[in-house]
Amino acid sequence: MKVFIAGGRGRVGSPLADTLEAKGIEVVSGGLEDGIDVISGKGLAEALAGVDTIVNVLNTPRFDAEGAISFFEGSINNLTAEGERAGVRHHIVLSIVGVGEGDASEIGYYLGKVAQEKAVRSASIPATIIRATQFQSYIPALIDQHTVDGKVLAPRTFIQPVELAEVIDLLAEAVTTPKPGSEVEIAGPDRFYHDDLFRATLAHRGDHRDVVTVDGNELLEAMIPRGAYRRGTVRYPIPGIPIA
Ligand SMILES: NC(=O)c1ccc[n+]([C@@H]2O[C@H](COP(=O)([O-])OP(=O)(O)OC[C@H]3O[C@@H](n4cnc5c(N)ncnc54)[C@H](OP(=O)(O)O)[C@@H]3O)[C@@H](O)[C@H]2O)c1
C-alpha cells in the first residue's frame, strides 16, 4: 500500500509517517519542503502516481475566513482532481471537533475547516473525516492565541484536549482498516474549563501571565463532542485541574 501524506512533515504528518512506515506502508510526504504545492499543483501528479490513499493533514497560517477557506477548499479540489487521475481510492481528512457548530462557525479558520469537510464530502474520491479536539501539546499555543496585551482571556467553556499520539493511531487505523464515508470524532478522557486549564498550564510552566475569565457564551460549548466519540485514555499531563 502507498500513502500520500499531504502535510507529511507537519506536527501531525511527521509522526504519522513514522507510524505508517513502521507498519511497512510506503509513504510519500507531500509538503512544500518536499517540493510539492497542493495549491499551485506543483509536483502533485508525479507524487500521487501509484498512491492508494491520501491522508490530508495540511495546515495554513491564514486565520481569516477568506484565506482559510481558499486554502482548505482549494487543496481538496486539487488533491481530488490529481488523485482521481492517479486512481486514489480513499481520502482521509483531519478536521476539528465542533467546527461549524454554534458560535465556532464565526471563526475564520473554522470556516476554512467547514469548507474543507464540505468539499471532501462531495468529492469523487470516497472520504473519511476524523475530527479531533485540541491536542494536549497545543494548549500553550492556544493560550498565546488567547493573549491580548499580556493578559490571557479565557472563556468559562469546555475543552477536552486529546493526546496527539492517540489521534495518530486513529488516522493510521483509517488507513489500514478503511471505512470510506465514515466520520469519527476523538477527544481526551477529561473535560475542563478553558480558564482552569490555562491557569494550571501557565503555573506549571512558571509563566506569570494573568488569566482573566471572560463571559463564555453558553452556546460556545461547540469544541467538545456532542455525540459518540472515541475517548482517549491519556490524561492531560498536569494533575489536579478540576474536571468540568
Ligand atoms: N492543533 C490542534 O490542536 C488540532 C486539533 C485538531 C485538528 N487539527 C488539524 O490538524 C491539521 C494538521 O495540523 P498541524 O499542526 O500538523 O499543521 P502543521 O504542523 O502546520 O503542518 C502543516 C503542513 O502543511 C504543509 N503545507 C502548507 N501549505 C502547503 C502547500 N501549499 N502545499 C503542500 N503542503 C503545504 C506544510 O508543509 P511545509 O512544512 O513543507 O511547509 C506542513 O507539512 C490541521 O488541518 C489542523 O486543523 C489540529
Textual characterization of the structure:
- The chain has helices at residues 13-22, 44-48, 65-86, 108-121, 139-145, 164-176, 194-204; strands spanning 2-6, 26-30, 53-56, 90-96, 127-132, 147-148, 151-155, 158-159, 183-187, 192-193, 210-214, 230-231.
- By secondary structure, the chain is an alpha/beta fold.
- It has a domain at 2-134 and 160-188: Rossmann fold (3-Layer(aba) Sandwich), CATH 3.40.50.720.
- The strands form three sheets. It has a seven-stranded parallel β-sheet with strand order 2-1-3-4-5-9-12, sandwiched between helices.
- Helix 4 (108-121) links the parallel strand 4 and strand 5 (127-132).
- Helix 1 crosses helix 6 and helix 3 (65-86) packs parallel to helix 4 (108-121).
- It is globular, with a radius of gyration of 18 Å.
- 43% of the residues are buried.
- The mean pLDDT is 95.
- Bound molecules: NADP nicotinamide-adenine-dinucleotide phosphate.
- NADP nicotinamide-adenine-dinucleotide phosphate binds at residues 7, 9-13, 30-33, 36-39, 57-59, 94, 96, 113, 132, 134-135, 138.
- Residues 19-137 form the NAD(P)-binding domain.
- InterPro entries: NAD(P)-bd_dom (IPR016040), NAD(P)-bd_dom_sf (IPR036291).
- It comes from Streptomyces nigra.
